[in-house]
C-alpha cells in the first residue's frame, strides 16, 4: 500500500506540474518566460536612461563652464527668437555712427529658408525675416555702414539694394533689404 501511495503521489505531482505549473510558466500571453523578457527589456531601458542622464550631466557641466561672453555672442549670432526691435536698434546704432537714421522700416517674416515650400522644408529649425529700411547719406558713409554690418555678430544677408540720388545736397537715399535668421 505504501508503494501505491508513493506512486500515486509522484503521478499527482507530475500531473500538477504538467497541467498546472508548466502551462503557466510557458504561456505566451503572460507566462513567466514572457514576464522575464519584459523585465529584461525594462532593465535595458533603465540602463539606457542612466547612461543618458550621465551624458546630459556632462553636457550641462560643459555648458555651465562656457564663458558667459561667448554665450551672449552666440545668442546674438543666431538668436532663439525673433527680436525685431533689438535688430532695428542695433542697425540704427550702427547707422548713427555715420550720422544716419534709418527710416521707412518694413519687416517681412518668412516661414522657412529655402527655395520651395515643400512639407520637408517646413521642418527646418531656422526661420528668417527680411528687413527693409532707407538711409540718406553719402556713398562713402554707406560703404562704411555696410562694412560695420558685415563685421556685426548678427548674421545678415543683403538681398536687395536700390538708391535715389539728390543732386541738391549731393546725398543718396539707399533702400536696403536685409535677411536675418533665427532659431524656431
What does this structure look like?
Helices cover about 50% and strands about 25% of the residues. With about 180 residues, the chain is of the alpha+beta class. Strands 1-2-4-3 form a 4-stranded antiparallel beta sheet. The chain contains 5 helices and 4 strands; from the N terminus they run ααααββαββ. The radius of gyration is 36 Å and the shape is rod-shaped. It folds into 2 domains: about 1-65; about 80-184, 2-Layer Sandwich (Alpha-Beta Plaits). It has helices at about 1-25, 30-65, 70-75, 85-95, 140-150; strands spanning about 105-110, 125-135, 155-165, 170-184.
Given as residue ranges, the uncertain stretches (5+ residues, pLDDT < 50) are 112-120
Radius of gyration: 36 Å
Q: Please state the average pLDDT score.
A: 80
Q: Which structural class do you get from the secondary structure elements? A: alpha+beta
**What is the count of structural domains?**
2
Q: Report the sheet with the most strands, covering strand number, pairing sense and barrel closure.
A: 4 strands, antiparallel
What is the CATH superfamily classification of the largest domain? Answer: Ribosomal protein S6/Translation elongation factor EF1B
Order of helices and strands: HHHHEEHEE
SS element count, helices = 5
Amino acid at each position: 500500500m505504501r508503494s501505491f501511495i508513493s506512486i500515486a503521489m509522484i503521478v499527482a505531482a507530475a500531473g500538477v506540474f504538467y497541467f498546472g505549473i508548466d502551462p503557466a510558466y510557458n504561456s505566451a500571453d503572460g507566462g513567466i518566460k514572457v514576464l522575464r523578457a519584459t523585465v529584461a527589456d525594462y532593465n535595458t531601458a533603465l540602463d539606457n536612461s542612466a547612461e543618458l542622464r550621465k551624458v546630459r550631466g556632462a553636457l550641462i557641466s560643459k555648458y555651465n563652464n562656457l564663458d558667459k561672453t561667448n554665450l551672449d555672442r552666440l545668442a546674438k549670432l543666431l538668436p532663439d527668437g525673433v527680436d525685431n526691435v533689438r535688430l532695428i536698434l542695433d542697425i540704427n546704432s550702427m547707422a548713427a555712427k555715420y550720422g544716419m537714421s534709418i527710416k521707412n522700416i518694413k519687416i517681412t517674416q518668412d516661414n522657412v529658408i529655402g527655395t520651395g515650400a515643400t512639407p520637408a522644408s517646413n521642418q527646418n529649425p531656422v526661420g528668417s525675416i527680411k528687413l527693409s529700411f532707407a538711409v540718406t547719406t553719402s556713398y562713402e558713409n554707406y560703404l562704411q555702414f555696410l562694412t560695420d554690418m558685415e563685421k556685426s555678430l548678427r548674421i545678415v544677408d543683403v538681398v536687395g539694394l536700390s538708391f535715389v540720388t539728390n543732386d541738391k545736397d549731393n546725398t543718396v537715399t539707399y533702400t536696403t533689404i536685409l535677411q536675418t535668421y533665427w532659431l524656431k
